Structures are given as structure tokens and as C-alpha cells.
Amino acid sequence: xxxxxxxxxxxxxxxxxxxxxxxxxxxxxxxxxxxxxxxxxxxxxxxxxxxxxxxxxxxxxxxxxxxxxxxxxxxxxxxxxxxxxxxxxxxxxxxxxxxxxxxxxxxxxxxxxxxxxxxxxxxxxxxxxxxxxxxxxxxxxxxxxxxxxxxxxxxxxxxxxxxxxxxxxxxxxxxxxxxxxxxxxxxxxxxxxxxxxxxxxxxxxxxxxxxxxxxxxxxxxxxxxxxxxxxxxxxxxxxxxxxxxxxxxxxxxxxxxxxxxxxxxxxxxxxxxxxxxxxxxxxxxxxxxxxxxxxxxxxxxxxxxxxxxxxxxxxxxxxxxxxxxxxxxxxxxxxxxxxxxxxxxxxxxxxxxxxxxxxxxxxxxxxxxxxxxxxxxxxxxxxxxxxxxxxxxxxxxxxxxxxxxxxxxxxxxxxxxxxxxxxxxxxxxxxxxxxxxxxxxxxxxxxxxxxxxxxxxxxxxxxxxxxxxxxxxxxxxxxxxxxxxxxxxxxxxxxxxxxxxxxxxxxxxxxxxxxxxxxxxxxxxxxxxxxx
Length: 532
Known about the structure:
There is one protein chain. By secondary structure, the chain is mainly α. It contains 24 helices and two strands. 70% of the residues lie in helices and 1% in strands. It has a two-stranded antiparallel ribbon. One of its GO terms (molecular function) is transmembrane transporter activity.
């Protein structure tokens, strides 16, 4: 995919673009949701969530440098294991991305619905009983349209817009942390014993990473991978862009969570417990309670800017993913067309907009959308470690501008962590997401039948490990411990042990399942163009 006539994206622009994706509605809602689930121990949930995503991202550095192309994360599994695995991976990733666009719009509208001024009473109709109302839904559609239109006019406009937005998005959380700490500082809220620190036990620390939007908040590292062909000096900047962005956002998230925990009045916790603290617009409501009205105004403003910045970035990424999926020959041809002037996949972007509108019409709450995103993203990420190691065996002579020294250790670790985090999404979300992913298979087999491909059975065998894995993770989610909404046939933490052991079996099965398909030679051609 061509970029416009401007210079390619440098490291600073890349970090700003990625932070524009990373720091979205997650910080506005995640701390409140996480403490409701895990109490003060939610601080550990952010560390765990960051480590899970960093372990997964590590594997994609080698792949991103080997195959720098727009929407690359939708192609790697197809290069190593053929069209069916590639389709399942890209479909899963796409499901998460089309859910990301509306979740940011929902966040903006939810904060807007709690504006405290008398002249703004009309905004209260946008949100009721934890969900977006029909009038609010129309406003959500409006935000999503804006996200898409900003992306219609070239990489230049996108990077200029996100550079400004990202600086603002780093500044407001920083000011919030400082002001909350100065205005209400109660370190005793962390508790004076292990029980007070973990009032609901240790299991919610893990479930919060999936259900409170923590993994969702770190998910945007793939912005770097999917902008591959538009990045300067891919050899160095892919790894730098990913880890600097994750590090900066991780520090910000942990500081925000800590400030939130210590800002709550101890009497409120004693009266309601962490479970019972209910906010419509968490940080803005908290600022009003503490009498910092100017901060609440700034937070209401940021509740527009943070989600818009993230929504704009993901409208770009999602368009590239659907564009790449069409090039796999399992999607309608019009999705692969580029605009003649700016070389942007406008048809794919408009298609994503329409389907995102359908998604948010069905799932109207922020937390539900965040959990769907977490589970579907992680299913897509399962193929990354498998593909990276498989290429070491099937393509030892491919150029590797970045050859990871710890890949043989980190790949299975990342696969296991992703499996655990899918489980943390809890029954029945796990099976619901898996069913949505399996809905894509009829589309795949229709295009396979239409093309009269001879490799269909071979591709099925190469992808069988992931299909069986999805059945396994559904069953273990149903049979698992009560702490994760399971039937309790396997108690906590033995459910973790079962997942770790069996996930490793699936990982090695996946690596052994790699075969040479025509897509392998496309990968070689792309790799030949890479400078080491």
C-alpha cells in the first residue's frame, strides 16, 4: 500500500500515534472498574496486563521487521500456515478492532451525559442504567463518522492530528494524578493487611485485567505493526515504538490507578465497599466531590479528546486490516480498493463504520465492549508466537533485521499468558466471542469453493490446532472455577495449571503445523525487499 508524498513516519510521530491509540477511554473508566472488581489490588492488575501484552508484542517485533506492510498483523499467520489460519487470525483481530471504534465513542457520550451544569441537562438522556440510550446512540454514530472522515485525507493529516492529541492526552492524566494526590491523599486505602489489600481474594486481580478494560487499554501496540510500510527505519523503530509506547502508557496507567485508590474518602469505602462505589463519569465525578471544579471541566473536555484520538487511530488501523484481509482473497474485491489521490482504503473504512454501528447497537455498555475486545484480540494474538517460531524452521534464510535472542523462550510464555487472559474474560463471554469468530468461517469456505482451491484440506490441517484450541478454551471456561464464572468442576488455582499445561501442547502443535503454501512465496518476495 502506498503512502502519500510526505515523508514516512519517524519514531517521535510513531510513539505519538501509538500513545494516541493507547491512552483512550481505558484511563477514564479502567481504574474505577478495576477497583470495583479487585479493590486496591487492582494496581497489580495493571502490571499483569502490561506484562501480558508486552510478552505478546515481543514476538511481533521480529515479524514486523521481516514483513513491513500495511495491515501486516492480518497476514503473518497466512504466510506461515496458509489461508485458513490467516483468515481466523485476521477475522479475530478485525472483530476486536471494529469494537474499538464504538467503545471510544461510547466513552465520550457517557462522560457527556453527566455534565453537571444546568444548561446541559439535556445530555442526561444519552445514558441510563449503565447503557447508552437510543438518543445517545445517534450521537455515538456521529463520533464514529468523525473518526472515519479524519482518516480519509492522508497520513500527513493523521500524524499532525495525533501529535497534538497525544500531547494533550499525556498531559491531562498527569495533571489529574497531581491534583488528586494534593487534594485527597489516603495511602491507608491500600489497607493494613493482605485481606484489606485484596478484599475479594486473588482471583479478581486476574479477572480485572480482562473485564475492567486493562488489557484493552494496552492493546494498541499493534498500531505500530499495522503501519509497517509507512515507518522510517523499520529495523529499529518498530521495537522502539512498541516498547516506549507501552512503557510510557504503563507508567501513566499505574499512577492513575494509585491516585484513584488514594483519593476515595475512607468513610465512603467503609460504607459501600469498593464494589459499591458507582460513578457515571469516574474521574470527573471524583473531582467534583473533592471540590476541584476546574479539573472536572478539563476531564469532561478530555473525555472528548482522549476517545477521539484513539478512535481516529483505530479507524486507520481497522481500515488497513480489512484492506489486507481482501488481499487474502476471502473478502469482496471492493474492500481492497484505494482512493486514487491519497491511497487510503476508503471502501474498507466505510464498511468498518457500518459494521461498528451495528456492534454498538447490540452492545451498548463500555465494560461489555471492553471484554469482547480483550477476548477477540487475544485469540488473534495466539498466532503471533506460533508464526514467529514456525518461520525459524520453514524460512531460516529469510532476512531478519531484528532477530530476537529470547524468542524460543518468550513465544511459549506469550502463548500461555494469552490463553490465561482469554480465560480471565470469564464464561459466557469466552464462548460468545468464539462463536462470533466462528461466524466468519462460512465466508471463508464460500470464497474457497468459489475459487476451487486445491489446498483447502491442507489449509484445514494446518489450522486444525487453533480450531481444537478454541473448543478446549470454551470447555475449560465452562468447567473452570466459580471465580471465573465457571461451573466449579476445576477449582482455583488448579484451573490455571490445566490451562498452562494444555496450552503448551497446543503451542507446539501449532508450530509443527506450519506448511508451505503459495502465500509463503509472497512472504519471501516481500522479505526480499527488506534492508537488513
